[in-house]
Amino acid sequence: MLFTSFTNIFITNDEIDKIDLAFFAKSILKNILILQSNYKNKQQTNIMEHTENSLSKLKNYKLDFHGNGSDFFGILIVNWLLTIVTLGFYYPWAKAKKLQYLYGETSLNEDRFEFHGTGKEMFKGFIKAIGLFIALYGVLLFFMYLEMPAIGLILFYLAFFAVLPVAIHGSYKYRMSRTSWRGIRFGYRGDRNELVKNFFKWIGLTIVTFGIYGSWLAMNLRSYIIGNIKFGDIEMKYKGDGGDYLLMNIKGYFLTIITLGIYMFWWQKDMFDYYINNLSLHKDDEKIELESTVTGGEIFTLSIVNVLILIFTLGLGSAWVEVRTMKYLLSNIHLEGTIDLDTIKQTEENYKDATGEDIEDMLEMDFVM
Amino acid sequence: MIIKTAAVYFDGESSTPQNVELFLDKNKEIFYFETQKNDWINWGIKESDFKQKSDSFIIQNKEDVSKSIIIKDSLFINNLKAYLKETGNVSWHQKLINLGFKVHSVIAITILGFIGLSYLYIMPYIAEKAVVLVPESYDTNLGNLVSKQSLMTNTVDSVKSEKLNQFAKELKLNNNKNLHFTVVNSDIVNAYALPNGDIVVFSGILDAMKDYDELVALIGHEVSHVNNRDSMKMLCRNLSGYLFVSAILGDTNGIMAIIGDNANTLQSLSFSRKFEHQADIEGFQILITNHVNPKGMSNLFKRLQEDKSDFSIPEFLSSHPITTERINDVEKMIQSKSFSVNDNPKLKTLFEEIKQ
Lengths: 369, 356
Fold this sequence. Notes:
A: disordered N terminus, B: about 350 residues, 2 domains, metalloprotease (chain B), hydrolase (chain B), protease (chain B)
């Protein structure tokens, strides 16, 4: 009898009473069952509480890229044609069209981002940027004419380095102000003088430490810039650390050498993860954390196929390459948090000066975002 | 005529989506709708921007682009698109985009073909002509720089160099620059000319030679390179090719730049074959002018051919036209041209001394 009752899995309290058992065995069994059912109940209420919490607080977010190769190809080819026909003067308009497409096909919760920058704004910036460079070279030539080339060169490089943070500042101010989602503008509120001061300090430390501080330079710059980006009344934060970044890059560098380059893709994954996972959005007490789910293997496949596309299409496939890459990266960024995206308020001003954007373009700087 | 659809409106003040009923009055050319705050809003067609996305259509107010309406009703979208087309409200850029994938591909291939043609024919032509603009003093400076650098890492045989210079002095070379010959101790079966008139001959090729006419052929060939400023032409070509390729590929990416760069190297290699051929013809002429047996030139090429290290390089990758072809060319010239050969004991003696 004892044996049969123990083998019965669907045992109930009533059944136990019916079984003629020794008192201690009966009580032990009862106690176990009570404990078990208590635990089950507790667990159930926990789950229910948790689901209730997340239903009321955790929101669903989805980043995606909807672009397709042949549409983007059309944009690029028309850009190409017009740039050639206008002997290059169409370039700012071409850049605007390209950015408008790429932003416009990126969605957050099915609504598209938008880039409102125009070729006209960027052309004005382009002219100012050219003017600035002519002025810089003019100063250099003037001092060479005065037969003081050393002073000329020092001034030239000082001015050149001073232009870098000013360009970064201007570029973000412009690019963010011309970017929106559901009509809510992004904005960059960094202080130019503060950035210039910090930038010189970080560059100085990088030179003094023979480049080692470069890792902190990169992270500090990123933290400063991202920390000053607003998306309506949502604030952004980046919490990367120069030391961690340095270690990650040292590891990536040596493993890439040891594996004859194969580790490179996993190094890229680490870098992407480090960028994305340290990003967060904040609004009052609520926040959204970003998480990357890219893998080294997938980046490897993506890159190999991209290279093959480029080679076999003589570069014409670059539209598909860019679209594939965007799609892969964006669909592998997951957002989790409690900010209600339906209640963002417009807070940022319009800003139309694209000079910084164009200086950055001319210097081919792409190192922050 | 008035058509309507369900749409979502963003008012540029908050991100709250507002479901609205959007009306389009085709006669009055306006959109109008009632916001959730019960305001009626009118937008003229001319005051609106239109953006086609892969699954939706966006209408924006030109004055304030943060105000926008999103339509997902494909029937309404098609109707609206047809209407905009009829009334001439499609921008020329949108028209170019609307040409479609096939036309875009044709445009792309045409541009690519045009770039290819200008890269192969127009650019090198211009670059070569542009050499005239480069002062000769630049050739000299560049040559001096390279010769300083390359001779630093090699051992110069000064006795043989002296003899070689004497040998060259005995020849009529039509040179427009002062020539200076250097013999470098090395197994390499080759020689090269620098733009400043420095000609470097490796002892490897001297060892392989059997008669002085071969040395005259070699000198004649290299002098022709100097006279024609071939190095400077090559430099201009490579540089212009590189600039051209990077300008075209400028805004793509690093990988493309590398591919482009390598393509450029291959291209400049086969370009240089034209120069080699020219130098062969002029070298042949120098042999005839000096009454030296032109057979020396084909013999010289046979020495190159015998050199095992040079053997396996296919024509496409080699900067010299394949040696058999060059030998045939010389044989043809020997048959077609009249010449007289006089034995030159002085050259013979000097050649013997260099060979020692």
